[in-house]
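== Fold encoding ==
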Amino acid sequence: MANAMKTLIPLLDRVLIKRAEAITRTAGGIVIPEKAQSKVLHGEVIAVGPGARKENGEFIPVLVKVGDKVLLPEYGGTKVSLDNDEKEYHLFRESDILAKIQN
């Protein structure tokens, strides 16, 4: 994760998110086929931009921070793959994020 933050810094109100992995096995050990797996709608914030700009040039701060768990829309975001990391990340605008998940 640290490599991703050094390599990719989101601009303005964009947020870099690593989606949680889909459940591939049941508690009893049965393998779930890929077509039957539900789409993962939550993830972890990896990096955050400085925020959107007002007309006078000041930044509106982003409400999520690195490490937050968030609820994501079913569709949207831009898929990002980094050369030095095999994991897949997504870039979302802050306004596209549905909610923060409290522990």
Notes: The two ends are 21 Å apart (CA to CA).
